[in-house]
Design goal:
Elements (H helix, E strand, L loop, with lengths): L5 H23 L10 H27 L4 H26 L3 H21 L3 H26 L5 H20 L3
Helix pairs in contact: 1-2, 2-3, 2-5, 3-4, 3-5, 5-6
Length: 176
């Protein structure tokens, strides 16, 4: 079994903590445009963001302590991180052009991808990675659909999320 090392654990913990710090700073300094107009959308987005941060921190700790579920949690957290960072890069390229943010976020994506690729062993690892990507995407899309009042598409996505969540919990309990 390929080992997920201490460097990966430190990466996870540092990125998770920095995500919390970054959002706290942005909120405290009023640098979140449209927060009052899109409260529902932001609530879902922050749920996905803080789920990502917490998953990364817990995955890092699990790796350091060599807990049995460390690989599953690490790949789940990495899936969350990759889509979160990809979304942030798109935001800072399209909506609020900020070259420094794009470069920094690109480094995070490249690092996460390299660490995950180096340690992955097969479909089980990739399944948890995909579950992280899907859950993060579903949470953000649901928030946007509810905020827009789109009650045609929102129920379908809500059903998908209602399937993804218990499947993810089941997969953590009984790895494939």
């Amino acid at each position: 079994m390929k080992k997920v090392g201490k460097g990966t654990a430190v990466f996870c913990i540092v990125v998770g903590v920095l995500m919390c710090v970054a959002w706290s700073f942005l909120l405290a300094t009023g640098q979140v445009p449209g927060i009052r107009e899109s409260t529902l959308s932001f609530a879902f987005h922050w749920t996905a963001e803080f789920l990502t941060a917490i998953a990364l921190i817990v995955a890092g700790i699990a790796i350091l302590r060599e807990v049995a579920f460390r690989r599953r949690l690490y790949y789940f957290a990495t899936g969350l991180l990759i889509i979160a960072t990809a979304g942030a890069i798109i935001y800072y390229v399209v909506v609020e052009p900020e070259p420094v943010a794009v470069v920094g976020l690109s480094i995070i994506v490249a690092s996460a991808k390299m660490l995950a690729w180096r340690a992955h062993e097969g479909m089980n690892d990739l399944l948890f990675f995909v579950l992280g990507v899907v859950l993060y995407g579903e949470l953000n899309a649901l928030g946007n659909l509810f905020q827009a009042g789109d009650m045609t598409a929102a129920p379908y996505l809500l059903i998908m999320t209602a399937v993804t969540l218990p499947f993810t919990v089941y997969a953590f309990r009984r790895p494939l």
